[in-house]
């Protein structure tokens, strides 16, 4: 099969479009013909290399996949079925998995990250429990743009922060995958959404997705703007994934009793915390990583009903993966960058 692989870490130039062996199915696994695969920041980090993470080479990344089933080593699987894939792979038999918290499984891993070759290829294999059927009116590009970011944002808002109707939510970086998903999920659940972005065009698009007020994060102070817009109260929930560059402002934007949920640190992992503010203002800091298989299925019902719509920035053919990585690294995108696999 054709695949995008890298044999060493580095810039986009290490990505090679080349022949790779087809995946061999073990019992309980299903082979999927990839039709579309969306990029995430994880793809960039894998390619660049991460401290203390050894990625076997050559490597195929890609965590967000949609396609058709072409072979199965699991019973009762219809060949030809259109599916999108759960991006989290877990053991399925530990206490966490059996409690419906598979993203807390000690063996949890994101598809395409280390040991599970990903979807930047013509074929990918996954355990049968990672399949989610998609209706005929949802195209593969839309389906590939949905799983990882909507799952992440759903887990942050609904499970970790326990969002309530009528609450105020601040979503950082509206143009990012998690940002556009969080705005839509929070709006859908009756929250008043404040969103930040780095250009007028992105701010307008954030409002079109449901943001009530927007903040230009290069020209305005996020915490001060939030205080002004909320009559000095602050927001109930902050959706943070930027890290060092915004951390202090994100904490300062919280109302008394507010919750900050973080799922990433794109600009760096060091954030200071004023412990006096933490206890006196009764703040809660929550970590969040991916989400459970059940949560993705619940979120997908809103997707299939047209109430959640993944935003696709643009598509590239699979062989132009390097150009797709470059676009993502330049931060010019609004929404998901998706590779088309013809
Ligand atoms: Zn497990």
Question: What can you tell me about this protein's structure?
Answer:
The chain is an alpha/beta fold. The chain has 11 helices and 17 strands. It has helices at 41-48, 95-98, 140-144, 147-160, 177-188, 200-209, 222-229, 247-252, 275-280, 293-304, 321-329, and strands spanning 2-5, 16-19, 29-38, 64-72, 82-85, 88-89, 109-110, 123-127, 131-133, 168-171, 192-197, 213-216, 235-240, 254-262, 284-287, 312-317, 336-340. Helix 4 (147-160) packs across helix 5 and helix 4 crosses helix 10 (293-304). The longest helix is centred in the middle third of the chain and has 14 residues, at 147-160. Residues 90-91, 94, 96-97, 105, 107 line the site of zinc ion.
- Poorly predicted residue ranges: none
What is the approximate shape?
Answer: globular
Number of strands: 17
Give the helix/strand class: alpha/beta
Radius of gyration: 20 Å
**Beta-strand percent range:** 25-35%
Q: How many angstroms does the end-to-end distance come to?
A: 12 Å
Mean pLDDT: 97
Helix content: 25-40%
Brief sketch in words of this structure:
The protein is an alpha/beta fold and 342 residues long.
Main attributes of the structure:
single chain, 7-stranded mixed beta sheet, 11 helices, globular, binds zinc ion
Topology (SSEs and partners):
Layout: E1 2-5, E2 16-19, E3 29-38, H1 41-48, E4 64-72, E5 82-85, E6 88-89, H2 95-98, E7 109-110, E8 123-127, E9 131-133, H3 140-144, H4 147-160, E10 168-171, H5 177-188, E11 192-197, H6 200-209, E12 213-216, H7 222-229, E13 235-240, H8 247-252, E14 254-262, H9 275-280, E15 284-287, H10 293-304, E16 312-317, H11 321-329, E17 336-340
Parallel strand pairs: 10-11, 10-13, 11-12, 13-14, 14-15, 16-17
Antiparallel strand pairs: 1-2, 3-4, 3-8, 3-17, 4-5, 5-9, 6-7
Helix pairs in contact: 4-5, 4-10
Bound molecules: zinc ion.
Zinc ion binds at residues 90-91, 94, 96-97, 105, 107.
């Amino acid at each position: 099969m054709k695949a995008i692989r890298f044999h060493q870490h580095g810039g986009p130039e290490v990505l090679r479009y080349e022949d790779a062996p087809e995946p061999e199915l073990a019992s309980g696994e299903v082979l999927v013909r990839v039709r579309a695969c969306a990029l995430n920041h994880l793809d960039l980090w894998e390619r660049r290399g991460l401290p203390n993470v050894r990625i076997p080479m050559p490597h195929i990344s890609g965590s967000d996949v949609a396609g058709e089933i072409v072979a199965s080593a699991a019973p009762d699987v219809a060949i030809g079925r259109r599916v999108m894939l759960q991006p989290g792979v877990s053991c399925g038999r530990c206490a966490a998995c059996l409690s419906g918290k598979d993203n807390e499984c000690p063996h949890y891993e994101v598809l395409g990250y280390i040991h599970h070759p990903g979807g930047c290829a013509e074929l990918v294999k996954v355990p049968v429990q990672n399949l989610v059927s998609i209706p005929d009116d949802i195209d593969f590009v839309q389906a590939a743009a949905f799983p990882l970011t909507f799952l992440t944002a759903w887990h942050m808002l609904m499970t970790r922060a326990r969002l309530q109707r009528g609450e105020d939510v601040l979503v950082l970086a509206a143009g990012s995958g998690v940002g556009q998903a969080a705005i839509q999920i929070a709006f859908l659940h009756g929250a008043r959404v404040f969103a930040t972005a780095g250009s007028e065009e992105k701010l307008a698009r954030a409002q079109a997705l449901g943001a009530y007020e927007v903040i230009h994060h290069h020209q305005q102070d996020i915490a001060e703007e939030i205080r002004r817009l909320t009559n000095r109260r602050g927001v109930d929930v902050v959706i943070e994934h930027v890290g060092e560059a915004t951390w202090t402002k994100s904490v300062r934007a919280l109302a008394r009793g507010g919750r900050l949920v973080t799922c990433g640190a794109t600009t760096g992992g060091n954030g200071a915390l004023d412990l006096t503010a933490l206890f006196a203002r009764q703040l809660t800091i929550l970590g969040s990583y991916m989400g459970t298989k059940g949560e993705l299925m619940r979120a997908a019902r809103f997707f299939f009903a047209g109430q959640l719509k993944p935003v696709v920035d643009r598509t590239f053919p699979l062989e132009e993966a390097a150009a797709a990585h470059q676009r993502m690294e330049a931060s010019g995108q609004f929404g998901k960058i998706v590779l088309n696999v013809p």
